[in-house]
Design brief:
- The protein is an alpha/beta fold.
- Helix content is about 35%, strand content about 15%.
- The chain has 14 helices and 28 strands.
- The chain is elongated, with a radius of gyration of 31 Å.
- The protein binds adenosine-5'-diphosphate, 2-acetamido-2-deoxy-1-O-phosphono-alpha-D-glucopyranose and magnesium ion (MG).
- Magnesium ion binds next to loops.
Length: about 550
């Protein structure tokens, strides 16, 4: 076996030498500035000159700074700097041991733990699972570092000490609640950093980055604080989501798809709960991050809209056999446009923020369409339109696309999966995606209903789901587009009148700006309604 050069011939150096010999190193010699002896062949500063003769070296100093300093020098010089592990130590196969660390007699390093560069785990110490020992740290004789702990770089854990829990500073974490959530899901010890993510209007979303080696990090998880103003019972939301995603995994498997990419997988907390409740009573949940996926705020190429149509149509079909009765109604009367109109009227009458005077034309726009609001709800109540398991929030940024192939990949934002009518899913997609501008475009001259995009969506949706839809359902689609757009505009306007408590806003009139774009789209849909109906009538059903 290789020859080993040890920097430091003190007491610890001698222990390392004995260990190296028992590991089978052929020749083991020292560099040391003070010690003398037959096996001391020079001073530490001779390390560069000895590189020709020795390829493998370690720095065996008891002092943390010195050990780290010389380990880094050896690495810079190009030495192989192995981890030295005593044969009696027990190391989990999933543990990671970095260069120049030492694990001495009868020490234990448990599952998924990481021992940093030049760290020392002394005799009889235990590092339990999922802990991280920072570079240059020293875990003293017989001490215990419990699971999920982080020992800071160069820190010393005293002999016999027990570390119960520690928290490290995670980049991007600016609140105790977020930190608690990260630890509750078990990411605290390893997580590199956290970044706010996505452009949803409801939840607070973060991407959680984990190390993947070579100093690189990748997003592994999505952590979300569920908005309890909107979802009063997060337990019910998570029940629905776990039920639906587990069901979808089986459907996708049967279809020959990849359940890890084509639906979300939610992760339970370390104590087995479907979500974590922080000190303030706020719920947090976590799912896998889908790698190599993209999310769009607007259609960039028409093909994307066709893809999203096919995916949402397919989603409806995939959930065709789902036991609808087991679903909780996470937001009661979510798409009951008649009730939405009533709520708008109440907000208008109360006018708590005295904002009605700033939006008279928009208020009148809604009031003039009172009769329209009931067109689909009455058909639903009379049983003409069947209830299905629907998504209810089918905007383009609630679907992920495969970054390589560009095809629709995974439907996300499953909070509002409830029994509903297909026209609403269809309509909500049209409202958001068949517009030539973003939902909050201020310049209304840029906002138009794009009937070609509508036509593409009809094609994709009916190709995927047309054969399960009844004739009445297919006929209801154009109204779905008009009414979801009107309803959404009405909801934005209601929120504006009530003081913006529901949707996230970036400036005071944000909701009013959003309402205006929706009403502009409604108006253009009304003007082209005959053509919208004709497009549906002339469409093929099912994939040819
Ligand atoms: P909201 O209800 O606030 O809209 P979403 O669940 O839609 O919350 O998440 C917000 C955004 O975060 C999405 O539009 C998407 O861009 C991104 N996102 C959410 N979940 C994932 C995931 N699992 N993988 C990748 N991106 C995601
Ligand atoms: C909200 O959560 P998000 O941003 O995907 C809202 C939808 C609206 C949409 C308008 C639970 O969707 O109903 O149509 O904003 N979601 C909820 O952009 O209210
Ligand atoms: Mg969303």
């Amino acid at each position: 076996m290789d020859k080993l050069l040890i920097l430091g011939a003190g007491g610890f150096g001698q222990m390392v030498k004995e260990t190296a010999v028992s590991l089978g190193y052929g020749e083991v010699v020292f560099l040391d500035d003070a010690a003398k002896g037959a096996d001391v062949i020079g001073k530490c500063c001779d390390y560069a000159e000895k590189h020709g003769e020795f390829q493998v070296a370690v720095a065996a100093f008891g002092n943390n700074n010195t050990r780290l300093y010389w380990t880094d020098k050896l690495l810079e010089e190009g030495y192989q700097v192995p981890a030295i592990i005593h044969p009696s130590a027990v190391i989990s196969p999933s543990a990671v041991l970095e260069s120049g660390c030492f694990v001495m007699q009868r020490a234990v390093v448990n599952t998924h733990s990481r021992i940093g560069r030049a760290a020392l785990i002394n005799s009889g110490a235990v590092v339990d699972h999922d802990s991280v020992i920072g570079y240059g740290a020293h875990v003293g004789l017989g001490s215990i570092v419990k699971s999920n702990c982080t020992i800071q770089p160069q820190k010393r854990v005293e002999p016999g000490e027990v570390i119960f829990s520690t928290r490290r500073k995670i980049e991007g974490v600016d609140s105790r609640a977020l930190e608690d959530a990260l630890y509750a899901f078990g990411f605290g010890p390893q997580c590199s950093y956290v970044k706010p993510f996505g452009e949803g209007h409801i939840n607070e979303t973060y991407a959680v980055y984990m190390p993947v080696g070579e100093g690189k990090d990748e997003p592994f998880y999505i952590l979300q604080r569920i908005n309890i103003n909107v979802f009063k019972d997060p337990g019910q939301v998570m029940d629905n989501i776990f039920g639906v995603t587990e069901f979808l995994r089986n459907v996708i498997r049967r279809e020959g798809g990849d359940p890890d990419r084509e639906t979300l997988s939610f992760i339970k907390t370390k104590s087995g709960e479907s979500y974590f409740e922080d000190d303030q009573g706020q719920p947090w949940r976590c799912s896998n991050f889908i790698p190599n996926s993209v999310c769009y705020q607007m259609v960039e190429r028409p093909e994307q809209f066709y893809q999203s149509a096919f995916s949402f149509g397919h989603f409806l079909k995939q959930l065709g056999e789902y036991p609808a009765a087991s679903l909780h109604e996470t937001i009661p009367h979510f798409h009951d446009t008649v009730k939405r109109f009533a709520a708008f009227r109440t907000a208008l009458e109360r006018d708590v923020k005295n904002r009605a005077r700033t939006c008279r034309p928009e208020i009148n726009f809604v009031l003039e369409r009172k009769e329209d609001c009931g067109v689909l709800t009455s058909k639903m109540e009379s049983g003409q339109l069947p209830l299905r398991v629907t998504h209810n929030d089918t905007k383009l940024n609630n679907i992920l696309f495969d970054a390589e192939t560009g095809s629709g990949l995974c439907i996300i934002d499953l909070d509002t999966i409830m029994p509903g009518i297909a026209a609403n899913d269809f309509g909500d997609s049209i409202r958001f995606g068949a517009s030539t501008a973003e939902e909050d475009e201020r310049d209304l001259d840029k906002v138009h209903f794009d009937i070609h995009l509508y036509e593409l969506y009809v094609k994709g949706y009916l190709e995927a789901a047309g054969d399960v839809l009844t004739q009445a359902e297919r006929d209801s689609l154009p109204w779905g587009a008009r009414l979801m757009t009107l309803e959404c505009g009405m909801r934005f306007l209601t929120d504006y009148l009530q003081g913006d408590g529901y949707f996230k806003t970036a400036y005071p009139e944000h909701n009013l700006v959003r309402a205006r774009t929706q009403f502009k789209l409604v108006k253009e849909m009304e003007e082209q309604f005959e053509e919208m109906c004709r497009i549906v009538q002339n469409s093929r059903i099912g994939k040819q």
